[in-house]
Amino acid sequence: MNNEISNYTDVLELQLKNYDELNDRYMEDEESDWLKNNKFVDIIINGVSLLDMIKQIETEYCQQEGCPELAGDYGHNTAEFMKKELKEALIPDTYNYNGVELYCCMGCGIGGCWSVCCNFRETDGLIEMKDFRQNHRKEWVYNLHYRFSRENFYNELNKL
Predict the structure, then answer these.
(1) Strand, helix or coil for residue 151
(2) Cα–Cα distance for residue pair 148/58, rounded to 1 Å
(3) Strands, DSSP E only, in the chain?
(4) Mind listing the pLDDT tens digit for each residue in 119-128?
(5) How far apart, in whole angstroms, are the C-alpha atoms of residue 49 and residue 40?
(6) H or E element: which one contains 60?
(7) What are phi and psi of 101, to 5 degrees?
(8) Measured distance CA(94)–CA(68) in Å, rounded
(9) For residues 115 and 75, what is the distance between their CA atoms, to the nearest angstrom?
(10) DSSP structural state of residue 78
């Protein structure tokens, strides 16, 4: 690996959004007080929505399954949920060390129902985001791997 690539870091941005700013349709109930009273996290990497990248990758898999509408069909998690997930992501022997649920089921809002997960690890002073997977489609390969500076990662975490 040349030094230019090994020294490269990606830029993480955790944008807080109101429910009405997203294309989510949890429980088909846009009038819910819970939806109105929470902030949701939109994960942006290098200026691009992670959900858009995931949808692009999943499109071929979903077309092969005959369900093209499932590609990227995830809901955004709340800021409170993501803060807990990301705080524990780097601590061995915690539940989230084995995977952070980045997105949840669009229909019910529950992560384990239909979600995309990944691992976060600290390596050589950088925070790596890797091992992306869909919880019900083990054969789907994402080939996504990002490296953030510790400062970038923790500054974004502190926004939640």
Answers:
(1) helix
(2) 24
(3) 12-18, 39-45, 48-49, 74-76, 100-105, 116-123, 126-134, 146-149
(4) 999 998 999 9
(5) 14
(6) helix 50-65
(7) -80, 105
(8) 35
(9) 9
(10) B
